[in-house]
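Hey forum,

I'm writing up a methods section and want to include a predicted complex as supplementary material. The small molecule is zinc ion. I've pasted the protein sequence and the SMILES. Can someone with a working setup run it? I'll credit the forum in the acknowledgements.
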Amino acid sequence: ALCIWGGTLPSERLLYILKTYQPTIIWTSPSYAWQLGEKAKKAGIDPKTDLSIRKIIVAGELGGSIPATRKAIEDLWGAELYDFYGLSDIFGACAAQCEYHDGLHITEDQILVETVDIHTGEVLPNGSVGELVYTTLKKKARPLIRFRTGDIGWIDQTPCKCGRTHGRIHINGRKDDMFIVSAVNVFPSDIEAVVHELDGITGEYLIRIFEENFTCRYAVEVEKNADNPETDEEVAAKLSAALKARIGVKPAKVKIHPDGGLDTRSEHKSKRIIDERTLNYDI
Ligand SMILES: [Zn+2]
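Reply by user p_vandermeer:
Happy to help. Structure tokens for the complex are below, copy them as they are.
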């Protein structure tokens, strides 16, 4: 096998490499997998038929474990997507999805994964949602004990359909990204899932968190597909209702941009959350 390191090459160069060498696997972030596929289509390349990608491994963001995001990327590329989780402080390969995509199998010979209460640090029983903490088991030079990752999730020790007996982690979101609206914990990953499930929009989005009358609110901005005949108001109403159904609280505002109108595509790891609050909220 030949490995081509792409790093942060511009997408035109990456598409040239994909077309010329026809690799079968790519490894990237979920947002960039999505953007690169969209850019390919705009350049007249169909990722499904003109390229040979069969498997996409993603890391660095949550998307690979959000079913709607995974499906959107898989449909775009005609490939199977695997989520991968590594932490350079702990171990390069902490956990990865198997062919059943139901959580990420932990490399239990290298690390011990536990969940702790985000307020008290108290260790929780397996299956409870809390902050995931990692302990290195084999590192001799720089061991770490209960390293707090900031990831919120839970541990599943039931046997997986694939037959592997390693426990699996399920990650719900980042502690720093979670915000509270009307006493409801809102994870940007839930908003992303809704945006990727809804027809007629590109899948790009921006979340703004702000205060109004001393109350935390959120706004969502999306792009309407160029061929979508619905009015902006219709798209906004649909998105608002879908967010209310999934999360429990409606966005204060939905803004619709034309295709390509959101400036979130420039980086490999997209910044899609803008927190405009002036107060620091502890959770
Ligand atoms: Zn499995």
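Some notes you might quote in the supplement: Residues 232-247 form the longest helix (16 residues). The CA atoms of residues 150 and 165 lie 26 Å apart.
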